[in-house]
Amino acid sequence: MSSAPEQKKLHKNESIKVNSVNLRGTLSEELNDNSTGSICADSAQLSKFHGMYMQDDRDIRAERRKKKLEKAFSFMLRVRIPAGVVSSEQYLKLDQLADDYANGMIRLTTRQTIQYHGLLKGNIRNLIRGMDEVGVDSIGACGDINRNVMAYNNVSNEKTRLEMHTYARKISEQFMPEGKAYYDLFIDGEKVTTEAEVEPIYGKTYLPRKFKIGIAVPPSNDVDVFSQDLGLIAIYKGDKLEGFNISAGGGMGTTHGNTKTFARVADVLGFVKPEDVHKVAEAIVTTQRDFGDRTDRAHARLKYTIADRGVEWFIGEVESRSGVTFEKAREFKFETIVDDFGWHKDVNGDWYYGQFIASGRIKDTAECQMKKAFQEIAKIHVGDWRMTGSQNMVICGVSEGSKAAIEKILADHGVPGPETLSGLRKNALACVALPTCGLALAESERALPSVIDDIEDILDEVGLRETDISIRMTGCPNGCARPFLGEIGFVGKAPGKYNMYLGANYEGLRLNTLYAESIKVDEALEKLKPIIKQYAAEREEGERFGDFCVRKEIVTIAEKDSVKLSF
Ligand code: SRM
Ligand code: SF4
């Protein structure tokens, strides 16, 4: 094992963590202070580890500034739901809490969990206590720590899915902080602790940056495994789990104009047996803990640690820490990323229903009362609810007898079925962006639906409506909807302007590349139209849009931007 590097001047967040008594800081006093809707900057950093972000409504920021009013502060709270599974009881409670304490909407995220927006400071404890009543928490959902663990969600293979969800839960628990700050601050009330608890994995400074883990089961790459800091690719022989190929060092976030930042697909390190997975995961996390760059947060993710030091060094470090030697990676093939929409049968003979949810926003409108429909279903549904990494919901374990009732509820509430979805819309992701995200440079969630309408018109013209094409939009280059893995990627550059990227591999093994910079949506459509027409006319059988763009040299992808596989 090598020794930790000599550090330059540490980023100020490092001292905030050290001095916080296991993430407590002055949060308790500030939550009790009714004179402002905000908390101080240091506390805002610490609150992330408990699953929340301080935000303000950017739609009314200028108006409030003019009136010399404090910003309209509120909090976003992100829940920890490993693999995105909740019971009907939990769903109903989570839904009720959105009405009682947040803005009345639930937002499914790209990491299989939910977010609340518009939560006022005075209601944070109420909301967290409500979640606690049904055994749900927001510990480590944000912050420099392991985030919500994603896992394969293809419900048709129920046995495998269950096995992988158990791994996701165990890995999530493995990387939970030991400290009890969350309970002291938000559940037990104002308990004051001055003595720090020991964090065996994280130490006093936790990780240099966020850390993300996802589990995929080929042929589905529904978790975008190569975008994760740590990826587990399950290898099955028939029904038997042989082990996992381990990947590391994926990530999306970049900064416009900062060439030192980049999106990266993970390296495949090798294969390990099931009994070694937790040891190897811990070695990967602690290597990043000790070697990640704590001086520059734009260079602090695992992808930079591996890119700077080399994958051979990383493998050696992980093997030495875990005592496990990687075997040669086992062969696998990803063939799809899309969720199963509509009714399907699982291997147990039960039904499941995949519901598309535009950008994961569960709300009621005049035309579609999806939130109410889900409430009504949760009142009668005995199976569970599974959120997908593409911001959709799967209602699982439905008996033959209950199917009609669920169908009726969806129809009575105007919830559109899968027959309305084009191949493009089924594969669409958009991040939240405005008005809540403080980092958004352009619209995303509010902009993507009409962009899809326009592209669908082009696809209709050339008979490609049913073709699966992945499209991902984000309001900035942080990459929350994994836009650099979209066959078409739109990344916000300025209000109304986007960078357009093309050429990713649909199954998530190759990043896209910049095709046009800082253009309006109309200009993007003008550029896309001839390419889509050419695709319709000249594609080879089964050829995906992203692969076509590369074969026809519409874009050229650097070698480093494809996953290297050798079996
Ligand atoms: Fe993200 C920051 C929303 C998945 C990369 N992300 C944010 C914040 C908290 C903005 C902030 O820091 O002030 C956004 C809150 C917006 C809001 O109003 O709700 C935000 N990220 C989201 C969500 C909700 C997007 C969505 O529409 O679903 C996703 C929540 C996931 C979850 O449940 O945990 C979300 N974020 C991602 C992903 C995708 C993933 O994890 O699979 C990425 C790219 C993968 C990666 O991490 O490399 C991602 N978010 C970022 C980054 C860039 C990190 C970096 O390495 O540079 C930031 C900015 C930061 O950390 O400084 C960020
Ligand atoms: Fe906000 Fe940017 Fe993430 Fe979108 S990609 S939610 S704009 S940080």
Question: What's the short story on this structure?
Answer:
The chain is α+β, with helices and mostly antiparallel strands.
Question: Would you give an account of this structure?
Answer:
This protein is an alpha+beta fold. It has four domains: 8-145 and 187-197, Alpha-Beta Plaits (2-Layer Sandwich), CATH 3.30.70.2500; 146-176 and 207-337, Sulfite Reductase Hemoprotein, domain 1 (2-Layer Sandwich); 342-419, Sulfite Reductase Hemoprotein, domain 2 (Alpha-Beta Complex), CATH 3.90.480; 423-561, Sulfite Reductase Hemoprotein, domain 1, CATH 3.30.413.10. 31% of the residues lie in helices and 18% in strands. The protein has helices spanning 12-18, 27-32, 41-49, 61-66, 88-101, 124-133, 158-174, 181-187, 277-291, 302-309, 311-322, 370-380, 400-412, 423-426, 448-461, 521-538, 545-551, and strands spanning 52-56, 73-78, 85-87, 106-108, 114-119, 150-151, 213-216, 230-237, 240-248, 267-272, 342-345, 351-355, 361-362, 384-387, 393-398, 428-430, 471-474, 488-494, 497-502, 513-519. The strands form four sheets. A five-stranded antiparallel β-sheet has the order 1-2-5-4-13. A five-stranded antiparallel β-sheet has the order 3-14-15-12-11. A hairpin with a 5-residue loop joins β14 (384-387) and β15 (393-398). α5 packs antiparallel against α6. The radius of gyration is 23 Å and the shape is globular. The two termini are 27 Å apart. The mean pLDDT is 96. Bound molecules: siroheme and iron/sulfur cluster. Iron/sulfur cluster (SF4) is lined by residues 431-433, 437, 439-440, 444, 474-476, 478-480.
